[in-house]
Specification:
The structure holds two protein chains of two kinds. Chain A contains two helices and six strands; from the N terminus they run E-E-H-E-E-H-E-E. In chain A, a hairpin with a 2-residue loop joins strand 5 and strand 6. By secondary structure, chain B is α/β, with parallel strands linked by helices. Chain B is 36% helix and 24% strand. Chain B is built from seven helices and ten strands. Chain B has a five-stranded parallel beta sheet. A four-stranded mixed beta sheet of chain B has the order 1-2-4-3, with helices on one face. In chain B, helix 1 runs parallel beside helix 2. At the A-B interface, strand 1, helix 1 and strand 3 of A face helix 3, helix 4 and strand 6 of B. Strand 1 of chain A pairs antiparallel with strand 6 of chain B.
Chain lengths: 96, 198
């Protein structure tokens, strides 16, 4: 018997948007800008399904997407958006 | 129902006898234990919760407590079995609020990313220990609380050094897991099969 706990039972679907950036500096700067504006965003490692950009991405809630993009456009145009549907270990990535 | 009269027996005998009895019975079966001190009831309660059993304690007088434990879904492990399982015990030590040396902001971002990644990989660590500046990660204003709660719900034990919480004035700001002392930390590290220090 093994004491390693394997997470095979996790099958909850989760849907969110991510924004990718050209540089790590840019990702960190934009996180700060959006957080200061009161948005609930967070830096997560770039999902391995996406090869573009730097190794970091911003995760945001679907409902904030439009407002965040409007805000972000004031600071930079150098980013890409994706929709992620996560089901257990499977991720479906769609560029927006 | 199994009955155990553990009055007059010293710690940890009441817990060991109860564990053995629980191991034998089916789910929803009950074990009825009589003990003669309050500490013993507390130890039984701790053990019962550890294995998802429900527990009822009735005080008859200062030297007689009746404890009824109903077996839940958790399987009970005896200490002998636990020793064998230590083989795959993975412990992660977070000793700072940043990952690696270099730029502070980058280090903080990397550590957040590391903890997020832990919620995404297949193997769940058994324990994560936070000490020194790492104690800020389990407390108020940390961005990793959500991830750590997720890990906790999957079975990871989250422990933060109590002396460190106190030092940084965070004792009442702990948001996830429990605080612990150096004896427990040392014990966990000694028994770990793999220690990961990002």
């Amino acid at each position: 018997m093994t004491y390693i706990i394997i997470r095979w039972w996790v099958q909850i679907e989760e849907k969110f948007n991510i924004i990718t950036f050209e540089s790590t500096h840019e990702a960190m700067r934009c996180e700060k800008v959006l957080k200061d504006k009161g948005f609930k965003v967070r830096i997560i490692p770039l999902p391995s399904e996406i090869s573009a950009g730097c190794g970091l991405s911003l995760k945001l809630n679907l409902e904030d997407y439009k407002e965040i993009i409007e805000n972000l456009n004031k600071y930079t145009n150098n980013f890409k958006c994706y929709e992620i549907i996560k089901n257990g270990f499977n991720k479906k990535v769609t560029p927006i | 129902m199994v009955e155990i009269d553990a009055r007059g027996e010293n710690c940890p005998m009441p817990v060991i006898k109860t564990k053995r009895a629980l191991k034998e019975i089916e789910k929803d079966g009950t074990v009825f234990i009589m003990v003669d001190n309050k500490i013993a009831t507390e130890n039984l309660e701790k053990m019962a919760k550890e294995y998802n059993n429900s527990i009822a304690i009735e005080k008859i007088n200062n030297e007689h407590y009746n404890v009824t434990i109903t077996k839940g879904n958790g399987s009970v492990q005896l200490n002998e079995e636990k020793n064998e399982n230590k083989k795959n015990n993975i412990v992660i030590v977070i000793q700072s609020d940043k990952m690696g040396e270099g730029d502070y902001e980058l280090g903080k971002t990397l550590l957040k990313g590391f903890i997020y990644s832990l919620t995404e990989i297949e193997i769940i660590p058994n324990t994560i220990i936070f000490y020194n500046k790492g104690a800020t990660i389990t407390t108020e204003n940390s961005d990793s609380i959500e991830d750590l709660e997720k890990l906790q719900s999957l079975g990871t034990t989250i422990l933060t050094c109590g002396a460190c919480l106190n030092f940084y004035n965070l004792a009442d700001k702990l948001k996830v897991g429990t605080s612990t002392n150096m004896y427990n930390i040392t014990n966990i590290l000694i028994n770990a099969e793999k220690i990961i220090r990002p």
